[in-house]
Amino acid sequence: MSDNLDKTENEEDWDNSILDEAKATVHSYGFIPHEVSFNQKSPHVVIVSATDRENRNNSLILKWCKTNPSTQIAILSTLVEEGFDLIPDYIECERDSASLQASSGRYWTCQPFVGSEFSYDWLDFDCPPQHCFHAGEALAKLHAIGAQAVRHHGIQFSQTHKTRTIISGLAEKLRRTFEILGNFEFNNPPAESTKLKSKKNKAQNARESALTLLKQLPAQRLCAKAETLSSELLKIETSLTQTINHGDFHPGNILFSTGSILAVVDWEYISVGSSMLDLGYALFMFCLQPPIDGIIDQELFSSRKTEAFLDGYNYHGLSLKGFQYLEKYSEFAHLLVLDWLCNELCKKSNAKPQTKYQQYQALKYPELALALTYCCQ
Questions:
Q1: Rounded CA separation 110/45 (Å)
Q2: Could you tell me the pTM of the whole model?
Q3: pLDDT for the residue numbered 258
C-alpha cells in the first residue's frame, strides 16, 4: 500500500494517477467511464461522465480520502432514515459497500452528480438574503433531525468525532499555527515597484499580502482568548442538546434551486455536539461582508443576511436555549477560520498558485485576512 497519497513534486503524474484510479473505481461501481476530470475547486473530487449496465448516461461525483469513510456514511444513512432528505445517495460498489479502497490506499465513494441553479464559492460572500433564509432552514432541519438521531442511536455515535474535541484542542492548535506563521519566510517576495501583472504573480502577491497581515496579529493574546473561550464552551456544551453537526456549512456546500435547497454536500467534518458552533460558523460564512480595497466602510456582517439566516433557522420552532451563548460560539468560530487560513497560506503547495481556482482563491485571501483581523481582535 502506497504512503504517497498526496501530491508529489511531479503534479502532472500525480493528477494522471488519480484520474486513472478514478476510472478503475467507476468500473467497480458498475459504470463504464467516458470522461473524467477534476472538480476545479478540489483535487479530492473527480467528475465522471459514464454509462450504466442499461446504457443510460450518468454524471457521477467520485471523492477520495485517506481514511475509511464508513462511519461518516453510516451517520448520513441514519440521518436520511430519520427524515433529512438533503443528502445525495451513496452508490454501492460490487462489494455491497458504499466505499471502496484502491491499491494506493485511498478510499473512494461514488454519488450521483446534483446540478444547482445557483452555484456559490465560499470565498464569494455574495449569497443573497433569500438563500441565507433557506440555508438557515436546512441547518435547523439538520440539527432537529440530528438530535432525534442521537437520542435514538446514541451508542452508534459513540465513536464519532465530537465537537468537544474541536473546542478543547483549538488553543494548542492555534499556538502551533502561530509558531509556523512566525517562522514563515517569503520566497523572494517581489518589490512593490517590480511586481508583475500576470494573474499568477498577482495571486502570489495577494497570498503574501494576506500572510503579512496575519503575521501582525497579537498571537499570544489570541491564544489566551482561545483558551478562555474553550474553557467556557466546554462547560456550556454539556448543558445543551446534542445533535449532528455538518462542520463546514457554507454557501459552496449548499446546492440551491429557485425557492429551495436541492442538497447539502461535503460532510467530511461531521461531528456530534451542540448545534451552536455549527450555527456560529455558518453565520460567519453566509453573512460576512469582506472589506473592499482594504477598507471596512460598512458593517462587517450583513444585518439583512444575518436576520434572514436566523429567521430560517427559527422557522421550525426549535428551542432558543443556547442562543444566549451564540456570541461566544461565533467568536470561537472566527478563531477556527483564522487557524485554517494561516495553515492554508503557509502550505508549500500554495507558494505559487497554479490553477485558475488557486489563483482566484489567493486573490480573495487578503480580504478574508483583513476581516479576520477585525473580528478576532
A1: 10
A2: 0.90
A3: 83
DSSP 353: -
- Report yes or no: 365 and 290 within 8 Å, Cβ to Cβ: no
Domains of the chain: 11-112 (3.30.200.20), 129-375 (3.90.1200.10)
List the single range of 68-72, 109-113, 318-322, 341-345 with lowest mean pLDDT: 318-322
DSSP assignment of 103-165: TTS-EEEEEE----SB---TTT----HHHHHHHHHHHHHHHHHHHHHHHHSGGGGTTS-BHHH
Q: Which one-letter amino acid corresponds to residue 268?
A: E
Nearest-angstrom CA–CA distance, 205 and 189 = 8
Residue whose C-alpha is closest to residue 70's, from 111, 102, 43, 101: 101
CB atoms within 10 A of CB 142: 23
The string of DSSP codes covering 15-82 is HHHHHHHHHHHHHHTT-EEEEEEEETTEEEEEEEEEE-TT--EEEEEEEEESS--HHHHHHHHHHHHH
Give Cβ neighbours of residue 138 (< 8 Å, ≥ 6 apart): 86, 254, 261, 264, 312
Rounded alpha-carbon distances, angstroms, from residue 26 to 20, 31, 61, 95: 10, 6, 10, 13
For 39-53, 56-70, 125-139, which range has the lowest pLDDT when averaged over its residues? 39-53
Question: C-alpha cell of 125?
Answer: 460572500
